Amino acid sequence: MFMQSSSSCAMFNLCIFLLLLFLLGSAKAETKNEVKTKVYLSPKIELGPGMVSNKNYPAIDFPQGHVAIKSFDAELVDQDGNPVPLYQTYLHHWILIKYYQPIHNSTLPPIIFGNVSGVCNGNSLISLGSGSETRKTLSHVPDPYGIVVGNPSDAPAGYEEKWLLNVHAIDTRGVVDKLGCLECTCDLYNVTTDEDGKPLPPDYYGGMRCCRDGTRCSLKGGYNKGGNITYYLKYTVRYMDWDPSIVPVRLFVLDVTDIVTKANGSQGIVYQHDCQVEYQVKKSCSNITDFAKNGCTDTKSVSFSFPVGGKLVYGVGHLHVGGVSIAIHGQDGRDICTSTTIYGKGTKAGNEAGYVVGMSTCYPKPGSVKIGGGETITLVSKYNSARRHAGVMGLFNILLADS
Ligand SMILES: *[C@@H]1O[C@H](CO)[C@@H](O)[C@H](O)[C@H]1NC(C)=O
Ligand SMILES: *[C@@H]1O[C@H](CO)[C@@H](O)[C@H](O)[C@H]1NC(C)=O
Ligand SMILES: *[C@@H]1O[C@H](CO)[C@@H](O)[C@H](O)[C@H]1NC(C)=O
Ligand SMILES: *[C@@H]1O[C@H](CO)[C@@H](O)[C@H](O)[C@H]1NC(C)=O
Ligand SMILES: *[C@@H]1O[C@H](CO)[C@@H](O)[C@H](O)[C@H]1NC(C)=O
Ligand SMILES: *[C@@H]1O[C@H](CO)[C@@H](O)[C@H](O)[C@H]1NC(C)=O
Question: Does the keyword Hydrolase apply (predicted)?
Answer without folding.
Answer: no
